[in-house]
Design a protein that fits this description.
Length: 144
Amino acid sequence: MRLILSYIGGLIFGLGISLSGMANPAKVLNFFDIAGSWDPSLIFVMGGALIVTFIGYRLVMRREAPVCDKQFHVPSSRTIDAKLIGGSLVFGVGWGIAGFCPGGALPAIGTGSVDVLVFCAALVVGILLAKTLQTRAAANAHNN
């Protein structure tokens, strides 16, 4: 059941990203090009997503537990640290350069575009590098 619900949720997310234009790097880059060929239409996509998420979280968090788990798994830390800021910067710069973010690139894999495949390969390398650095930092903290 959990796998089926995950598939349905991912399918809805991917369709929404694709239909909204968030999987189109040209549209995303035009959104960021305020001084040039600015396309403000993605503001409505982001605003709509924000409203749905705001309402959805309020409704879901009224439950004692999720449908397919014993407890909710939400971040507990409210600390704004170098790791959070650095990750945000890497995400934003990568999105601005490539026109893709992970949520937009993964549904676009089906197009077979070389740009998408290169981005996804770089994404995997970045994830593995981050995990390696995190493991090393934890080991160093444990040894000291």
